[in-house]
Protein 1
Amino acid sequence: MSLDATTSNRSAADPDQVLAVHGLVKRFGAVTAVDGLDLAQRRGTVLAVLGPNGAGKTTTIEICEGFQRPDAGDVRVLGHRPDARELRPRIGVMPQGGGAYPGVRAGEMLRLVASCARQPLDVDWLLGVLGLTDALRTPYKRLSGGQQQRLSLACAVVGRPELVFLDEPTAGLDPQARRLVWDLVRALRTDGVSVLLTTHLMDEAESLADDVVILDHGRVVATGTPAELTADATDEQRLGFRASPGLPLADLLTRLPGCTAEEPDPGRYVIRGPIGPREVSTVTAWCAERGVLAEELKVVRRSLEDVFLDLTGRELR
C-alpha cells in the first residue's frame, strides 16, 4: 500500500524534528492534567504515546493539534506554534470522538475535507482502501463504530499531511479492520509521513512504533524504542503457561530455587528466574501430579505491557 505522500521543504527550527514540546503544563481547575512534560518526534517516524486513563495523553495531543492552549511550556509542530494558520494544511487529525457531522453521508464528509486540501488523495480510492465504498451514501450516525473510526482516519490522511495525529485509531475495531489500519500507518511512514498515535493496545505500539513514550500523572516516566524499553538488564528469563486458576505456586517454588512465580491473570502463570530444560520439565511434571495440563508453555521475553504495568501500576484508574 502506498499513499504517495508529499512533504514540504519549509524551514523549521530542526528539519529532522516534527514535534518539540518543552515543559508543557495544562491545568483544569485544581487538577494538573499535564505536568512539565517534554516530548519530541523525529521526521518520518511513528511515535506511540501510552499511559493509563487520565495520564494526560489526549490533553497533550489536543494542545499539539491547537485545540487547547497550554498554561505553560513551549510547543512547536513542524516548527510552528500549534495555532499557526500555515500549519493547518500540513497536519491531519483523527480525534477520539470521530469529528464528523451526524447527518452527513460518509462520501460527502470525506469529499468536504478533501476540498480543503491543495493536493488531496483520490477520495474514491481512499474509500475503497478503507472498506467504505458500500457506505458511501450512509449518514455518519448510521455507520457502525468501526466504519466511523475508518472514516475519521480517512479524513485525517486525505489531505496528504506531513504529520498525522491519531488518538486511539483502532478503538472498537474488529481484527480485520485493525490490521487494515496498521497497514495504513505503515504506508504513511514508508511515504515519509510522521505519525503520532495514542493507544491502549501494547501490541499495537510494539508493532507500529519507532519510539514509545509512557506517561503517568501528566509526566513522562519512560521513553525509548520498544526494544530498548523491553530489554531486561538482569537477563532474567520468563516461563509462561496456562492452566487451571489458583494453583499453589508456593509449593512449585520449593522445586525451583532462584525463581519467582505469579498468577497475573486467572489461569495465566509466569515463572521468572534462570529458566532451562530442568525448570521446564519441573513445571510440567508438577502440573501433571495435579492432573493439570500446562498449555501454551513457552519461554517469553519481557513485553511492553510488563514495562507499562511496572511503571504505572496495576490498579484501575
Protein 2
Amino acid sequence: MSGFTKSVTKAVIPAAGLGTRFLPATKATPKEMLPVVDKPAIQYVVEEAVASGLDDILLVTGRNKSSLENHFDRAWELEAALEQKGDDQRLERVRKSQILGDIHYVRQGDPRGLGHAVLCGALHVGNEPFAVMLGDDMIDPRDALLSRMLEVQQQYGGSVVALIEVDPEHVNLYGCAAVHALEGEDVVEVTDLVEKPDPHDAPSNLAIIGRYVLHPAVFGVLRQTSPGRGGEIQLTDALKTLAGMPAESGGGVRAVVFRGRRYDTGDRLDYLRTTVRLASERKDLGPDFRAWLREFVAELPPEEG
C-alpha cells in the first residue's frame, strides 16, 4: 500500500472529441452539449463529480467547444429576461449550471487520445490523486459509483478503475481487465489490461468504463507511453504499466465492479434509450410521456420476417 491518502478534490473531464457518430448534429455543437431531456450530457457528469465531493473540475476541451464554457458561465441577459417574466423555476435551473463547482478549462490541441487528454491536466492537478470522468458515460445518481471508487482509493492507494461485465463478443469495444479478487464482492485487483482486444484474446469479459481515480504517478507514465492502438496515447496502456509498479511508486490498480445503471450517451441508439428512460422517470414529464409511449408502442406495426 502506497500510503498516499490525500483526499481527492479534483476531477478531469475530457471533452475534446469530435463527436463524429452524431454528425451532422455535432458539426457546430459539441457532443457534450447534446441535450438529455433538458440538460446537456456534460452537466450530468459535472453534477456527479460535485455530488461526490469533487468541486474543482477541469474540462479538457478543443476547437469549437466554446459553448461548454458559456454553459457554465453567467448568462446575464437570459437571467434578466426570466426575472422580468417572474419565471423563477427556469431561472433557478439556468443558475444551477454556473454554481456547480469551480470549473477550469484547458485546450488539448491535437486529439492524440484519452491518455494525452489526461496528461493535459497535469499542471492543474499537481501531485494529488484525482478523478477522470468521461463526458459520454453517465452514471445514475442513485448508484454512487464514484463515491465507492474514492473509498477504495483511500483504502488501498494507487489507482482505481470501474469495470462492468459485458457480452464476451463485445469486449473489442472496450479496454479489458485481468483481475483477481480482493475482500468484498465489488473490489478486485487488476493484473493486466488490454485495449479493445479480439474476443479470443481478451483476458476476461470485464470492461473498463469512463470512471477513474488515478494516482498522480500516471502523469510520469503517460509521458513515457508510446502511441498505441489507433496511433493514440492510450490511458489503458498507462494503467497497465501502473498495475506492475510497486506501491511506493504510486503503482497498483484496483477496480470496482459496477452493477448499477449506466447510460452511454456517446452511442446514438444508447443516447435515445437514455433520453427515453430518464424522461419516463421524471415527475414532471413521466406520467404523460409514459402514457404516450404506451400508445405509440401499441400502434407500431409488427416486425417483418
Protein 3
Amino acid sequence: MAVISRGFGARRRESTPDLPPGQFLTTDFPVLSAGPTPEVDTAEWEFLIRTETGDEKKWSWDELQALPQETIDTDIHCVTRWSKLGTTWRGVSLDTLFAEVETSYDFTMVHSYGGYTTNLPLEDLLDGKAWIATEFDGEPLEPEHGGPARLLVPHLYFWKSAKWVRGIVMHGDDDPGFWEQNGYHTYGDPWQEQRYW
C-alpha cells in the first residue's frame, strides 16, 4: 500500500509550463512507498556493483563518503503526477562508482534494502545522469525519502530513483523490476508520459 504525506498541495501544469505533461507542481515532498520504511544503519550499509562475471565492487558508508561529492540542482517528477522543481541533493556520481567496473552488458537492475528493484539502461546511469544521493537540502537524507542513500535519476520518473539503494547488478536484457512487473513503464520518461505499459 502506498503512503502519501499529509498537506500535499499542488498547482496545475497550465500555470507552470516547464512541467512535463500531466504533472502538478508541489512545494511539499510527498512520501510514497510500497511498504514499511527499512531501518538501515550506516555502520552496516554497503553498496555494490556486480558484473555479469560475478565480480563485485563494494563500498562501505565511510568509503562512499570519502569519494568526490557533487551538488545536484534538479527537478523531480513522480509517476503519481506531482513534480517538485529546484531541489538540491548531494551525492556520488555513478560515473565515479563505475570507473573501475568492466562490463559488456547494457542494462542494470537496482536493488534496495527491503527488497525493492527497478531496471535501468546503463546509459541512463552514466555521463552525469545519476548519483547515489545521501543529502537533500543540505541535510542527511531522511529515511522516509530513501535515506541513508537513494539512487537519483532525475530525468526519469522518480520511482526509478530507488530508495534505500544497496546495489546494482548488470543484466544482459532489460528485465522488469518490482514496479515494472506491476504495470509501470519499463523506461519512465516524464516528458513522454511513460507512466504505464
Protein 4
Amino acid sequence: MLFIFEIMRMTVKIKKLTLLLLTFIFLICSAFLIHWLEPEMFPDPFIGFWYVMTTVTTTGYGDFVPETTLGRLFGLFLYFVGIGLIGIVIGKIVEGFGIYRKLKEEGKLSYKGQGHYVIVGWSSKAKHTMNEILEIDDKAKILVIDSRAKTPFEHEKMSYIQGDPTDKEILEKANIIQAKAVLIFTQDNEFNPTAADGQSLLTVSAIEGYAVEMKQEIYTIVEILKEKHISNFKHANVDEFVIADEALSDLMAKSAVDKGSSKLIMKLLSRKSGVDIRKIKKQPVWQTYNDAFEELKQLGATLISDRNDFNLLTKLEEPIPNEAELYVICSKEAYEKMATS
C-alpha cells in the first residue's frame, strides 16, 4: 500500500505532457492485458479498453466484469492505481486551465487572431472607444496593450497584452501586423501635453518602424493633446490624428453660436442615434455624384462627402474621380444593404 502512495506522489511531480502520454500507454496496455487474461469475457482489446475506462472513471456499468481470480486481482489493481492516476490527470487538466486563465488575465499570452483592433494605453476614452467599436461591429475583436499587472477590463471580445508598446516583442505578441487598426491613447488626467504627445510619438514610431521592417502597412490613429505637435509626427506615417483639446473647444464654440448643435453632433457620433457615418466604395455604375446620391437615397443613405469635401450638392453633375472616398450617413441595416447590393 505504501508503494502505491509513493507511486502517486511521484506521478504528481511528472510534467503534464509526460503524464498524459504515460496514462494513455497505461490504459492501452491494461486493455490488452485484460483481453489476454480473460479472452472469453473480453473478446477483443476494444472491449477490454471499455472495461478499463468504465473502471478508472468509476462509471462501472457492469456489462463486462472479470470472472477469474487473476482478472479480479487486475480489477483491484485498476481501482487502486488507475482511479488515482485518472484523478491526477484530471487535476492537472484543471490546473492547466487555471494557469491559462491567469496568464491571459495578466496579459502574458500571444494573440493568434487577425482583423482585430489594437488599443494602446487604457483610459476612460479607450474604454468608451472599445464599446463604440463593438456597437458598430458586433463581430469585432479588441486587443489592449498596457503596462497594468492585470487586464483593466473583463469582456468576452477583449484580449490583453501586458508590456511596453515600443517593444518589438510586445508588438509581435499582439499580432499587430494583422490588425485592422491601431488606436493610440493618452492617459486620463494628463497635465503635461508635451510629455503625453511625446510618448505617443515614441509609440507610433515603434509601430511604424516595425511595419516597415515587416514590409506591411499598419493603419494608425493617434490621440494628441496639442495640434502644434502634429508636425513632430511627420516622419511617423500616422494615418489619422484626433486632437483632444481642440475637438472639445470646437464643439463648445459651435454650441455657443448655434445653440443645440452640440447635441446633434454628439448624437451623430454616438451609436444611440441609430445612424452612423460610413465609408463606402465607388460603384462602377456611378458616373457622377448625382448617380451615387440618387441610388444611395433609395437605399436609405445620404451621401455627405468625398474625403474632406462636403460641397457635393454643388457638384452633383461632376464625374466621380477614381480615387474618390465617399462617406454617407445611414443606419446599420442600410449599410448592410449597400454591402450586399
